[in-house]
Amino acid sequence: MARIVRHNDESVREGYIRNGGKEVKLFTSALKAFQCNNRIVMAQRKHLDDFLRGRIIGRLECGRTQLEVSEELGIAQSVIFRLWQRFQDDGNVSRCYSTCRPRVTTPNEDRYLAVTAKRNRRSTASDLSRQLSSATGTTVSRQTVYRRLGHIGLYARRPVRCVPLTATHCRLRLAWSREHALWTPQQWSCVMFSDESRFSL
């Protein structure tokens, strides 16, 4: 048996339209246009406001059937069924709004990224993403790794090309500079600065 699609009190069945007891065959282009318009109307979703939800629940509590409420208000019966089931479960019919997308990583995976990044300071975000994927099976992008590390104060930095100075180094350099603060240009002329010259042996 062919499926009948109802639209504006008319029935369409395999290229035929029935109206007032007469069955007239539609042209192919007209049939396609009719079906396309019908799909567009069905695809448009409208969220029910709280007032309309209250009207639906009120009618159902008065003993009306779901089919009657559906035909009266022009709402799909499946929507009314889900709304009634939710009202019976928790007594709430308000629409639930999602605050944000669910997080891809768990707190344990965030800690794993932090520990791995602290152990190897030269690891890139791509390296950390691959290590997390191999360890836990969770695939994340580089941007996600950047955000997770940024929450704990770890940011990408280029390594500094210099000798790291300790407290002893700073103290000795300060003492040397104080000793030579009053040197004359003649005394400095006898000093050869090897770090500023290039020698070929």
Automatic annotation (TrEMBL):
SUPFAM superfamilies named among the record's database cross-references: Homeodomain-like
Main location class: nucleus
Places the protein is found: Nucleus
One CC-aspect GO term: nucleus
Gene Ontology biological process terms, A to Z: DNA integration; DNA transposition
Domain Transposase Tc1-like: 110-180
A GO molecular function held by the record: DNA binding
Name by which UniProt lists this protein: Transposase Tc1-like domain-containing protein
Naturally occurring in which organism (per UniProt): Araneus ventricosus (Orbweaver spider)
